[in-house]
Amino acid sequence: xxxxxxxxxxxxxxxxxxxxxxxxxxxxxxxxxxxxxxxxxxxxxxxxxxxxxxxxxxxxxxxxxxxxxxxxxxxxxxxxxxxxxxxxxxxxxxxxxx
Length: 98
Prior knowledge:
With 98 residues, this protein is an alpha+beta fold. The protein has one domain: Alpha-Beta Plaits. Helices cover 24% and strands 29% of the residues. The protein has two helices and four strands, in the order βαββαβ. It has a four-stranded antiparallel sheet, with helices on one face. Strand 2 and strand 3 form a beta hairpin. Helix 1 packs antiparallel against helix 2. The chain is elongated, with a radius of gyration of 19 Å. The model has no long low-confidence stretch (mean pLDDT 90).
Protein backbone atom coordinates (compact mmCIF):
# COMPACT_ATOMS: atom_id res chain seq x y z
CA UNK A 1 0.00 0.00 0.00
CA UNK A 2 1.12 3.51 -0.63
CA UNK A 3 1.05 6.11 2.12
CA UNK A 4 -2.06 7.62 0.50
CA UNK A 5 -4.09 4.42 0.96
CA UNK A 6 -2.82 3.31 4.37
CA UNK A 7 -5.81 2.79 6.65
CA UNK A 8 -6.03 4.95 9.72
CA UNK A 9 -4.80 3.39 12.91
CA UNK A 10 -7.66 2.62 15.30
CA UNK A 11 -8.16 5.08 18.10
CA UNK A 12 -6.51 3.98 21.33
CA UNK A 13 -8.87 2.12 23.63
CA UNK A 14 -10.08 4.16 26.55
CA UNK A 15 -9.83 1.90 29.60
CA UNK A 16 -12.36 3.74 31.70
CA UNK A 17 -15.18 6.23 31.54
CA UNK A 18 -14.45 7.19 35.13
CA UNK A 19 -12.35 10.23 35.83
CA UNK A 20 -9.99 9.52 38.74
CA UNK A 21 -10.11 10.29 41.58
CA UNK A 22 -13.88 10.31 42.04
CA UNK A 23 -16.54 9.06 44.45
CA UNK A 24 -17.77 5.62 43.40
CA UNK A 25 -20.72 3.82 45.03
CA UNK A 26 -20.54 0.05 45.47
CA UNK A 27 -23.46 -2.11 46.63
CA UNK A 28 -22.67 -5.21 48.64
CA UNK A 29 -25.34 -7.74 49.59
CA UNK A 30 -25.22 -10.61 52.00
CA UNK A 31 -27.05 -12.47 54.72
CA UNK A 32 -27.96 -10.22 57.64
CA UNK A 33 -25.56 -11.58 60.28
CA UNK A 34 -23.44 -10.07 63.03
CA UNK A 35 -20.12 -8.83 61.68
CA UNK A 36 -21.21 -8.38 58.06
CA UNK A 37 -21.05 -4.56 58.08
CA UNK A 38 -17.75 -4.63 59.95
CA UNK A 39 -16.25 -7.12 57.46
CA UNK A 40 -17.26 -4.98 54.47
CA UNK A 41 -16.00 -1.80 56.16
CA UNK A 42 -12.63 -3.40 56.94
CA UNK A 43 -12.16 -4.50 53.33
CA UNK A 44 -13.16 -1.11 51.94
CA UNK A 45 -10.73 0.70 54.27
CA UNK A 46 -7.87 -1.44 52.91
CA UNK A 47 -8.49 0.02 49.44
CA UNK A 48 -9.57 3.52 50.49
CA UNK A 49 -7.81 4.56 53.72
CA UNK A 50 -9.83 7.79 53.79
CA UNK A 51 -13.16 5.95 53.69
CA UNK A 52 -15.66 7.36 56.19
CA UNK A 53 -17.74 4.55 57.68
CA UNK A 54 -20.37 7.13 58.69
CA UNK A 55 -21.36 7.37 55.00
CA UNK A 56 -22.45 3.71 54.79
CA UNK A 57 -26.06 3.18 53.74
CA UNK A 58 -27.89 0.06 54.92
CA UNK A 59 -31.06 -1.48 53.52
CA UNK A 60 -32.76 -4.63 54.80
CA UNK A 61 -34.44 -7.02 52.39
CA UNK A 62 -38.23 -7.24 52.48
CA UNK A 63 -38.16 -10.34 54.71
CA UNK A 64 -35.21 -9.02 56.73
CA UNK A 65 -32.94 -11.97 55.95
CA UNK A 66 -30.49 -10.03 53.77
CA UNK A 67 -28.73 -6.71 54.10
CA UNK A 68 -27.68 -4.34 51.35
CA UNK A 69 -24.72 -2.11 52.11
CA UNK A 70 -23.83 0.85 49.92
CA UNK A 71 -20.31 2.19 50.37
CA UNK A 72 -18.96 5.15 48.44
CA UNK A 73 -15.22 4.89 47.94
CA UNK A 74 -12.80 7.35 46.43
CA UNK A 75 -11.84 5.55 43.24
CA UNK A 76 -8.24 6.25 42.28
CA UNK A 77 -7.75 3.69 39.47
CA UNK A 78 -9.41 0.88 37.61
CA UNK A 79 -6.99 -1.55 39.24
CA UNK A 80 -8.09 -0.38 42.70
CA UNK A 81 -11.76 -0.91 41.85
CA UNK A 82 -11.13 -4.30 40.21
CA UNK A 83 -9.21 -5.58 43.22
CA UNK A 84 -11.80 -4.18 45.65
CA UNK A 85 -14.59 -5.97 43.74
CA UNK A 86 -12.58 -9.22 43.71
CA UNK A 87 -11.83 -9.02 47.42
CA UNK A 88 -15.43 -8.26 48.36
CA UNK A 89 -16.82 -10.93 46.02
CA UNK A 90 -14.65 -13.66 47.52
CA UNK A 91 -15.56 -12.89 51.15
CA UNK A 92 -17.70 -15.71 52.57
CA UNK A 93 -20.35 -13.33 53.97
CA UNK A 94 -20.85 -11.54 50.63
CA UNK A 95 -23.43 -12.85 48.15
CA UNK A 96 -23.40 -10.09 45.48
CA UNK A 97 -21.30 -7.01 44.66
CA UNK A 98 -22.65 -4.38 42.24
